[in-house]
Amino acid sequence: MSVATIRAAMKAALETVANVGKVNAFEPLAVREEDFKTCYVDRRLGYVLGWSIARESAEETRSSHRTNLVGHTLVVRGVRALAEGGATDTEFQGLVDAVLAVMRKNQVALYGASVVEVGPPQLRITEPRTFAGYTVHYCEIAQRCAEQVDLVPQS
Question: Three-state SS across 64-85?
Answer without folding.
Answer: CCCEEEEEEEEEEEEEEECCHH
